[in-house]
């Protein structure tokens, strides 16, 4: 046997790539209404709620754009091409759905102001623009406002929709990452897992898309781990229960602390002053203690990972905490000529499709 063949035999077996976790329904006892979303782009409209408005002066130009059936990556490439920029010169606050009508800010260097109208196409419209002192960064938004039409809903399902809506208004819904986070058949999740476990390297990624794919793929693994922790809390009927050692987030300021007085913090949770959180693993993540720590480490180990894996790409996987539950604002469910119309506002980073699945249960 050659030394090379012997070396392959002695290599430790790498863990198998994970499959995307299916999140249990919080409203499993209420039958879903079915229906179809995104039959037309206008059925799914999203408008960013900026964290701040541009002040009218500065070295950057904030451009308020409406796009129709254009992905965030396509938008960035289009802006870079038309304004002769590097994609890194373009700022966005968050990714937006492709199959939708969305309105959002992008930022470009102020020198582009004379040419900003060149961005207009049949699918992209510049609505207005204004200068600001800093570049727009990921997360610079307070949330998103949605108006979504669910088509082909039977009339007798409206009572179910109202019941689900009341439950969500009262209890919130699981703050899971949507399936689109993980790519077709989990391909983005697999890539991130392969990068973290050394099955592949970033050098094998297309140079033109490397930065984009790295961020997306590694985030997919963090998202899957969060979803699995969240799923266990739902299954164990602990989603609305504060445990000793939980990491809580103060609402809405975002400061985090570890629970050592369960009775007091359960009252604060019930009063919507604080929220339980789950892990976005990484070196800077605030760790829980006691039983919540054991639960999170068990999920990490079951996926064949360990905390050290996230050190490899520490700039892209710094780690944080994410609320386990979201309570939508401005929430309404109404009959519409084409079906059922849902309107609501969600915090930044929350998936509307995760809310919709509680209503539709099409899986």
What is the helical fraction, as a range of percent? 25-40%
- Could you say what the CATH topology of the largest domain is called? Pseudouridine synthase
Largest sheet geometry: 8 strands, mixed
Intertermini distance: 51 Å
Q: CATH homologous superfamily of the largest domain?
A: TruD, catalytic domain
SSE string, helices as H and strands as E:
HEEHEEEEHEHHEEHEHEEEEH
**Number of H/I helices:** 8
**Gross CATH architecture of the largest domain:** 2-Layer Sandwich
Low-confidence stretches: 3-10
As a percent range, the share of strand residues is: 15-25%
Structural class: alpha+beta
* Text of the CATH class of the largest domain: Alpha Beta
Shape: globular
Element layout with pairings:
Blueprint: H1 3-10, E1 44-50, E2 60-68, H2 72-82, E3 91-92, E4 101-109, E5 124-132, E6 141-151, H3 158-171, E7 173-174, H4 187-197, H5 210-235, E8 247-250, E9 256-258, H6 262-270, E10 274-280, H7 290-302, E11 320-323, E12 325-326, E13 329-336, E14 339-347, H8 352-360
Parallel strand pairs: 1-4
Antiparallel strand pairs: 1-6, 2-4, 2-5, 3-4, 6-14, 7-12, 8-9, 8-10, 10-11, 13-14
Helix pairs in contact: 4-5
Structure description:
This protein is of the alpha+beta class and 363 residues long. It folds into 2 domains: 41-142, Pseudouridine synthase (2-Layer Sandwich); 170-324, TruD, catalytic domain (Pseudouridine synthase, 2-Layer Sandwich). Helices cover 28% and strands 24% of the residues. The chain contains 8 helices and 14 strands. Strands 1, 2, 3, 4, 5, 6, 13 and 14 form an 8-stranded mixed sheet that branches. A 4-stranded antiparallel sheet has the order 9-8-10-11. Strands 7-12 form a two-stranded antiparallel ribbon.
